[in-house]
Amino acid sequence: MSGYLKYLFVITFTLTISQFTHADNLSLRMIDTKEGTSKFYHELLSAALASNGHALEIINIGDRPQKRTVAMFENGQLDIIWLLKSAARSKKYIDVDVNLTSGLMGQRILFIPPDTQADYVEVKTLDNFRRLGKIAAFGANWFDEKVWQTNNLPYYIVDGEWRSIFKRLLINDPTKSRTPFHYFSRSVTEITIEAKHYPQLIIEQNLLFQYDRDFHFYLNTKSAYLKPIIEDALKKAEKSGLLKQLIDKHFSTQLRSLNLNKRILISLHTPE
User: Fold this and answer.
1) CATH domain 3-103+215-252 topology
2) pLDDT tens digits for 131-153?
3) Which of 1, 19, 131, 255 is the most buried (most CB within 10 A)?
4) What would the pLDDT profile of 51-101 be if each residue is shown by its tens digit?
5) Which CATH class is domain 105-212+258-267?
C-alpha cells in the first residue's frame, strides 16, 4: 500500500470512529417543567437510547413558558422539544415520527372552578356540551385551538404565560372583571400532577374528551442528523414494551384516580 493510500485509510478510519463515538454519546438541551410533567419524556428518551446503545446527557435548561420554549427551539437554544403533532409542525420542524404516550395526550379532562361542577352533570353528548356555552382557555399557538374550532366550541387564547389560566379560572366575583373563560382542558397525563400545584381548582368528575393526536419529539434543523437515531430507538422501545412500561410507571396511578372508564366519552373531530 502506498504512503498516500495508507494516509487516506487512516483518515477515513479515524473519521468513522469519530462519527460512531459522536453518535454513541449524545447531549441534548431540553426543558424541565416545574410541575414535573417533563420527567416521563426525559426518561423515555434516555431509556430508549440506552437500550439502543447510546448514552444521553440531558442538559436541563429549566422551565420556560411554551411560547418562549418554541422561540428558543427555533433559535437553536434547545435541541429537542415535545409538542402535539400537526401537519404544520411536521413541515416546519424535524418530526421524530413516533407517538410518545400511546394516545393519552389526546384524552382530555377539564380543570374547573370548584363551584361549577353541577353545570356539567347533565352533559351526555357533544351537543349537550356546546349548549352550555362554556368557553375554553388555551395558550397561544396550541393545537387544541384548532380542535375546538373544528368542533364549534368557543375558546379564548391567553397570549403570555399559559399558567396564568389556572389562577384566572378562580375569578368569579361579578363585581370584578370576570375572566372570559370557564375551563381549562388538560391531558390525562398532566391534570393530576398539575392539580397538586393548583389545589383551589377541581378536576371535572364526569367527562372525558378525546381527539386523535399525540405528542411527538421535534428536532431543530441543526439536530436533524439525530432523527434516525432517536426514531429507531423509540420504535424499538415501542416494540419491546419499554414504552408501555414507562407509561405505566409514570401514569398508571394518575389514570386510575381519574376513573376514565366511568366517564362520559365525548369524541372530537381531529383536524390536520
Assistant:
1) D-Maltodextrin-Binding Protein; domain 2 (3.40.190)
2) 999 999 999 889 999 999 999 99
3) 255
4) 999 999 999 998 887 888 999 999 999 999 999 999 999 999 999 999 999
5) alpha beta
What are the grid coordinates assigned to 153, written together? 366550541
Assigned C-alpha cell, 269 = 373531530
Alpha-carbon gap, residue 74 to 86, rounded angstroms: 16
